[in-house]
Amino acid sequence: xALVIGFALVFWAIRAIGSSGGEGFYAVLSHNAMxxxxxxxxxxxxxxxAISLRRFWAEVGGKPLQLSDLMSAFKRAGKMQDLAAGxxxxxxxxxxxxxxxxxxxxxxxxxxxxxxxxxSTSVATVMHYGFGLHAPYGFWSLPKLFGVSGxxxxxxxxxxxxxxxxxxxxxxxDPSAWGGDIGFILLLGFVGLSGLVLYALGATSVMPALLAxxxxxxxxxxxxxxxxxxxxxxxxxxxxxxxxxxxxxxxVGC
Length: 254
Prior knowledge:
254 residues, mainly alpha, globular
């Protein structure tokens, strides 16, 4: 929370310096300023994750990638197949003998919500630099459709995950990591929620303050990415790829 507030104040200070002009959000903070701040904040954490993944890959004896291994891993990840458990009844995450697919469905909402938000930014970048189509975009444009639907899934999914973790038995996991997990989920959900509020009130006088808060939360999320549970997505995908390699090797050996 301190980081979110701090970064929001930084953006507010940048806004006070002024903008070179533009429409919508760019009237508050120029496009070049956003790129200068967010490009390194996004790329440097990815470099950190890439270095650790390379070490992990060597540790587990990973082999050169094949398309079939990648397709198998992405298929399992997309379906959240392992959260259905081997018996297909879901996870027993509570202190009861009851299985549920709730955890799987909530993970689906968070993952696809995040991917839609990422797709929104990616499409907007291509439209801006590739086709000269600059923001703001209308509601029926791909950036808005991806962003709004992704923000809703992300907000609802993170809220449901917090409720689920409140009900779950903490002793089934690492109790010392529980607080960090909750903090990360709340931050990710706040990114989605603040984006939706910013879209809804983007034409009002509170837009500059909302923009500062939203961008501050996004920047915080990027910088903390290698040190939060967000990193488990990268490792999980790598583990699924290695598992696909092992299965292929066993089938060839037989």
